[in-house]
Amino acid sequence: MTAPTHTSFSLIFYFILVGATGLLKVNPITIGFLIFGSLIPDIDTATSAVGRTCFPIAMFIEKKWGHRTITHSFIGWGIVGIIALPLFFLRQGYYYAFLVGYSSHILIDCCNKQGPMIFWPSLIRAVLPGKKEYRIPVASSKEFILLAIFIVLGALLYPISTRGFTKSLHWLLGDIRSAVIDYQDYAPDYETFIEVKAVDNLTYEKIEGRFQVIGQLGRSTLIVACSPELRTIGSYEENNWRPVKVRVVKGDPINFVTQEIDMSHRLLGDIRWFLNDEKYSQRIYGSVEIIEQVSVPYTMELYNPISVKGKSLVFKHATLRDVEKLNIGNVYVKEGKFLVRTALKKGERLEQIDPKRAEQLKSRFSEKYDVAFSIEDKSEVMVKRGEKIGQGQVIAKIKRKIKELESTQKEISNLKARLKILTSGKESLQILGKRNKIKELKQEIETAAKEGKRLVDERKDKIDFLERKVELLEQQKRLQEREWEKTQAFKTQFQIDEIKAEIDSLAALRDELPQNVKEKMEKAEREVGNTKEELQFLLENKNNLEILKLQKNIDDRNIQKEKAESQAIIKSQVNGIVVDVVYSMTMEYLTRVQITVLSEPELAKKEMKDVEEIKKDKSEVKKKYRSIECKTGVFIDAKEYLEKFEKEEQEND
Question: Is residue 132 helix, strand or coil?
Answer without folding.
Answer: helix
